[in-house]
Design brief:
Belongs to the DapB family. By secondary structure, the chain is of the alpha/beta class. The chain contains eleven helices and 18 strands. It is globular.
Length: 373
């Protein structure tokens, strides 16, 4: 005679559904329970509904992620960070048409590159195979909006680490689709903390630096260069082989590897905070340093990090020139961003599992939640 034992799932998980266990045979020691009775069981194995299977931290390690693009140094750094974290790297990645069909090996994993023409069909098939897929995007600025539109159309949550594109359109696309996403111009954990502090200062003390001028020099080694200049009888800096007076007025310089095509998203975010603090500055005044010779001679970037660095220094000067403030952050390599991107993916997975009402997050949200490994 068949029997059914009903156990409330809230003993084992979060939902109130009932899980039924059935058998066609009646054990000899079977005890009849009335419908009003329930049996509390101690079970060594865990029963979870499909939409809760990542709530166990151990299952976070099996989270499938797709990294676009695997041909770029940033994408490869994210893949290596994901492997180190124990995540499942999906063996597919979006790239440019010229790389379509290629197989790239990263961290011992073979990853096939798919061009623009088959992105939608590829992603649809991947979603069927990996229902909990999360995408990490480090492509190029002009692909931001098209990629986001595809992710949203397919219903795939994503981490957007690529800067540039139409940011207003990006946010609107995600909001309309109700897809979960982490969007941030900066993935470096410690730099995010600095940005969070800047946001707090701008919110609590608006206008505190009214009248000040802002210069953002690309982390020029001011100590050694000014010292050398003073020994020479004057304060002069070198730029492109030409001497010039030390920067006056509003000027922003930022140095990144030559392959970075757009203005630093971090610089934009910091400047926005300074504007709220009362500093007058136009983003169009930002000057990009992408020439390796200038980066070595003027900025002081180590030669081994020319292909991967981010040097910034923000210099504020009072109207009468008697007071100055400096904020500096220099990054060599890509590991800080790659590790942050993986943290963001894990954070996003938890938000999806908890069915959070909020859909769009940034790295400050990740930092506030303590989701940094």
């Amino acid at each position: 005679m068949a029997f059914v034992l009903e156990v409330p799932v809230n003993l084992l998980g979060r939902h109130q559904n009932l899980v039924s266990f059935s058998s066609s045979r009646r054990p000899s020691n079977f005890i009849n329970f009335t419908r009003k009775q329930r049996c509390k069981l101690s079970m060594s194995s865990t029963i979870q509904s499909l939409d809760e299977k990542h709530l166990d931290p151990a299952n976070d390690l099996a989270l499938p992620i797709m990294v676009n693009s695997c041909t770029g140094k940033m994408g490869q750094a994210v893949i290596e960070a994901g492997i180190s974290a124990g995540l499942h790297i999906v063996p597919a990645s979006f790239g440019i048409q010229q790389d379509a069909g290629k197989t790239i090996q990263v961290g011992g994993k073979d990853i096939q590159v798919h061009g623009p023409s088959d992105r939608e069909t590829t992603l649809s098939s991947l979603v069927e195979e990996y229902p909990n897929l999360i995408i990490v995007d480090f492509t190029v600025p002009n692909a931001v909006n098209d990629n986001a539109e595809l992710y949203c159309k397919t219903g795939v949550p994503f981490v957007m680490g690529t800067t540039g594109g139409d940011r207003d359109l990006l946010y609107k696309t995600v909001e309309d689709s109700k897809v979960y996403a982490v969007i941030s111009p900066q993935m470096g954990k410690q730099v995010v903390a600095f940005l969070a502090a800047m946001e707090i200062m701008a919110k609590q003390f608006p206008g505190a630096f009214s009248g000040y001028t802002l210069e953002l020099r690309a982390a020029i080694d001011l100590g050694s260069r000014r010292g050398a200049a003073m020994e020479g009888g004057g304060e002069q800096l070198m730029e492109g082989g030409e001497e010039r007076d030390e920067d006056k007025g509003n000027m922003v310089l930022e140095s990144h590897q030559s392959t970075k095509l757009d203005t630093s998203g971090t610089a934009k975010a910091v400047i926005s905070c300074f504007q709220k603090l009362g500093v007058s500055f136009d983003l169009d005044e930002v000057q990009l340093i992408r020439d390796p010779k200038q980066q070595i001679e003027m900025v002081g970037v180590p030669e081994e990090h020319l292909n991967g660095h981010a040097f910034h220094m923000y210099h504020l000067t009072s109207p009468d020139g008697t007071v100055s403030f400096e904020f500096q952050h220099n990054v060599c390599g890509r590991s800080i961003y790659a590790e942050g991107a993986i943290d963001a993916a894990l954070f996003l997975a938890k938000k999806i599992q908890s069915k959070a009402d909020k859909k769009i997050y940034d790295m400050i949200d990740v930092l506030r939640e303590g989701s940094m490994r």
